[in-house]
Amino acid sequence: MKLNYILIDSNPVDRLLFLQVLKNFPEITLNGEFSDCFNAKEYLNYNSVDFVIISSDLSVFNGFEFVNQLKDDIEIILLTKTPMDAIKSYEMGFIDCLLKPVSKDRLKSSIERVAQKINCLKVICEKKEHMIHFKCNFKSEKVQANNIRWVQAMGDYVKVVTKNKNYLVLSTMKSFLNKLPKNQFVRIHKSYIVNLKKVINYTTRNVNTDGKLLPLSRKQKGYFKENFINFQ
User: Fold this and answer.
1) pTM
2) Which domains does the chain have, with CATH numbers?
3) Judging by beta carbons within 10 Å of its beta carbon (0-12, 13-18, 19+), is residue 203 exposed, middle or buried?
4) Would you give per-residue pLDDT tens digits along the chain (232 residues)?
5) Rounded-to-integer distance, Cα 26 and Cα 30, Å
């Protein structure tokens, strides 16, 4: 996955030299370069990036003041000619502080640090949201578990029903159920698995899932009721 960034440096010579070093890293994409904070801030108001490379020495206000004005948390790499800036960078939680002129090896270490942190945060986020990964129409797909309304058996496939889209996945019901968060998803029939968060109510024969009546088998009735009550 390529990471996107912008560069902010008011010194045209420093900026040009640094851009030459950045060309050695195809795994990151430069979305824009700026000589002042005003245009950079305007850009970030309407666009998102993974990280910002910014010089501490800027006109009007410095790099630290610029970061304090950002609404969103963005990883920051600070460029500086003042070694003591590293201490303040650490205190403010910047991912790194690089002393100008920046060498290729030092920048490589910094980019690796950014990539590692962003990837770790992504994994944590996915675990928290519990993303379900599967293949559909020869494409790798992922769906947040909470967005699944129900799963229906369709021969050798299962149909994963969400609010905006349905997916036909080559899988058994048992195998797909193992991908889902335990206790949140329950099999109510040989052909149906429901998301308990989407269940509105139920009768002796049906389960109202997001406004859709799905059959409740006698075999699964007791198990469903127990899980539904405990889930509440």
Assistant:
1) 0.56
2) 3-129 (3.40.50.2300), 131-231 (2.40.50.1020)
3) exposed
4) 689 999 999 999 999 999 999 999 999 999 999 998 889 988 988 888 999 999 998 877 788 888 888 867 789 999 999 999 999 999 999 999 999 999 999 999 999 999 998 887 766 655 566 889 999 988 899 999 999 999 999 999 999 999 889 999 999 999 999 999 888 999 999 999 999 999 999 999 999 999 999 999 999 999 999 999 888 6
5) 10
